[in-house]
Hints:
- It is built from 10 helices and 9 strands.
- It has helices at 10-22, 38-50, 78-88, 98-101, 119-123, 127-141, 154-166, 196-201, 204-217, 223-235; strands at residues 6-7, 27-32, 53-58, 92-94, 146-150, 172-176, 240-249, 263-271, 274-282.
Amino acid sequence: MPIAPVIKEPEALITWAEEQHRGGHTIGVVPTMGYLHEGHVSLVRRAKAECARVVASIFVNPTQFGPKEDLARYPRDLGGDLAKLSAAGVDLVFVPEKEAMYPAGFDTYVVPGEIASTLCGASRPGHFRGVATVVLMLLRMARADRAYFGEKDFQQLAVIRRMAKDLWLGVDVIGCPIVREPDGLAMSSRNVYLSPRERAQAVCLSQALAAVANRVAAGERHAEALRALMRTMIEAADTARVDYVEVVDALTLRPITTLDRDALAAVAVFFGKTRLIDNRQLHI
Ligand code: PAF
């Protein structure tokens, strides 16, 4: 299987992308931080189905990590990632160095507003500023027509959609369904950090979210009862430490009292040092 071409320099990516546009080809972009799993591959497949050219980026973006977070130990496997992306049919892989993305003197950031103030935005100050900034750079460098993100990072998707609209990026932001392990655990590059015991217990996240969906289907409309249900189920796992369990408005991501509109149940939980997130949309 031929390995997809790799570009490291932003200027080379821009030259390639402009050539594709001159040839009349649409460009789909799949931004990633590498250590790819089936969830990422599903984004590439969707992009392949909808765009003439597909670029994936691999860049562990330092500005979206807090000082006490896992930037230094974030898992990496460039060889494995290139094999997966090539097999999925990407046309180009962009793997910039930190200095190419953030050269000396870099001093401009995108600061998302209200949409980034709850959930992970509240627990990880500055995280979405880093995400929005790097995604804007990547989409501009790749001259993206469409960009693909997983719904596991539901708030990230909402922040990027808002940015694309507010800043007139002219990029269609596409959300793709969460891909899960056979037992229900949402795929994440961070799952590799889990000890066997933590991994076994981490299934409580998807189980708690499924229990919430069942309660809602049975008529429950009190958000607080749903939060309590999730907390009880998750805290039954002795390696779990809840960061948040929330039920929010699906559009604003603000906590709600009553389910009288589309909502989102969302959780962030530490298993040991590993923070996992998951969510489930609640349609009534
Ligand atoms: O979801 C991720 O992997 C990252 O937040 C992203 C979108 C690639 C930006 O660094």
